[in-house]
Amino acid sequence: MKVGLLFGSFNPVHVGHLILANYMAQNTDLSQVWFVVSPQNPFKPSHTLLHEQDRLHMVRLAIDDNPRLNATDIEFNMPRPSYTIDTLAYLHQRYPSYEFVLIMGEDNLPSLPKWKNYEQLIGNYEIYVYPRSKTPHTELKEHENVKMVPAPNLDLSATFIRETVKAGKSIKYLVPEPVEDYIKAKKFWS
User: Fold this and answer.
1) Apex CA 84: angle with CA 45 and CA 92, to 5°?
2) pLDDT one-digit tens code per residue, 21-76
């Protein structure tokens, strides 16, 4: 089975994530797309994040009706911050017959050389890259393991959603209804 891995904080998961994941699952050679909920991204301050279990629960609420999408807490029991290469090694131990592919935005490609063991990562794994506007050119786009995928790009961020909630405005249609209900029930960011 070929599985695409979409890493993120998902603080919260939103329709942009879902459109991208579903597009990758339906329009590439991937059997499934897994949302890898990262408890702590090494490039982001952790104090801004909801508890990892809440973020995982919202992803599961969002994808509950789609058998091609899955959520994993694989990084919850790993050292923090989480490094993609370590997660991939752990996934290979757990699922030796699976082939894993990274899914990332084009805007992450220029900073890939800053990632832990990035040469090993790009040398051993395919990376499916979706377009992002205003991304500086990088030679990595030409790498044999980088595949540009013309997925739709919705300019929506979790930051925007959190700010909208803080302002007391509606997030209807920005997140799936069960996620919106969960955010309201838990009074996140209000």
Assistant:
1) 145
2) 999 999 999 999 999 999 987 666 667 799 999 999 999 999 999 999 999 999 99
Q: From residue 165, how far is each of 37, 80, 122, 186, 190 by CA, in Å?
A: 21, 29, 38, 12, 6
Q: Is 33 exposed, middle or buried (0-12, 13-18, 19+ CB in 10 A)?
A: buried
2-154, what's its fold? Rossmann fold (3.40.50)
72 sits in which H/E element? strand 69-72
Is the distance from CB of 112 to CB of 122 less than 8 angstroms? yes
Helix axes 15-27, 52-63, angle to 10 degrees: 50
pTM: 0.95
Hey, where are the domains in the chain? 2-154
Q: Would you say 146 and 109 are in contact if contact means Cβ atoms under 8 Å apart?
A: yes
Mean local confidence (pLDDT), 151-163 = 94
Q: Among 190, 153, 185, which residue's Cα sits nearest to residue 57?
A: 185
Chain-centroid distance of CA 143 in Å reads 22
For residue 69, what are its two tokens? 């999408």
